[in-house]
Design goal:
Belongs to the RNase HII family. GO terms for molecular function: manganese ion binding; RNA binding; RNA-DNA hybrid ribonuclease activity. By secondary structure, the protein is α/β, with parallel strands linked by helices. It contains seven helices and five strands, in the order ββαβααββαααα. The protein has one domain: Nucleotidyltransferase, domain 5 (2-Layer Sandwich), CATH 3.30.420.10.
Length: 202
């Protein structure tokens, strides 16, 4: 069972990102402050949920949270400052957009660049331990998926509507056939041994 928050003395925001491992598109981050005693059946790490489950939970989180915000870093920023720094920057942007300023931050993962004047704790697999991080994981994931589905319309060959920019064999194959789109991350390696094997046997 997930706990509401990491600590109760200070107003706490949970933070998470989505899209770090993708070949294309931005990395998205969300920050969420939940009310004390918040309960939402089914709320869990977004990776443990289906698309339909996330879609049902998102509007409830957005309606009932004390504050929430979503922000991103695009593919050009990712290429310029690297994906780890871009993930931190997207989180900072989300925190900055919160209408209620948090007094404490809990971050999913083991590293974070300190946000000015707000203490934080990094929680490995925090999206499966604390509701506010789980809520942030769902908002980051659903907002990014929506963005990539809209982007798919102009670039259907890469099938972003289905793979959301992640490095599936079909996505890698499409890049090798069509070249990079304007939204691909140029610093990410597209080729892969399993793709070469797949291509030879195709």
């Amino acid at each position: 069972m997930l706990l509401n928050c990491y600590q109760e003395e200070l107003l706490e925001a949970g933070c998470d990102e989505a899209g770090r491992g993708c070949l294309a598109g931005p990395v998205f981050a969300a920050a969420v402050i939940l009310p004390k005693g918040f309960v939402l059946e089914g709320l869990n790490d977004s990776k443990q949920l289906s698309h339909e489950q996330r879609a049902l939970l998102r509007p409830i989180i957005e309606q009932e949270a004390l504050a929430w915000a979503v922000a991103s870093c695009d593919h050009e920023e990712i290429d310029r400052i690297n994906i780890l720094n871009a993930s931190f920057l997207a989180m900072h942007r989300a925190i900055e957009k919160l209408q209620t300023p948090p007094q404490y931050l809990v971050i999913d993962g083991n590293r974070f660049k300190t946000y000015p004047q707000i203490p934080h704790s990094c929680i490995v697999k925090g999206d499966g331990k604390y509701l506010n991080i789980a809520a942030a994981s769902i908002l980051a994931k659903t907002h990014r998926d929506e963005y990539m589905t809209n982007l798919h319309v102009g670039y259907p060959h890469y099938n972003w509507q289905q793979n959301k920019g992640y490095p599936t064999i079909a996505h890698r194959k499409a890049v090798l056939e069509m070249g990079l789109s304007p939204f691909h991350r140029k610093t990410f390696n597209v080729s892969a041994p399993q793709l070469e094997l797949f291509s030879k046997n195709a």
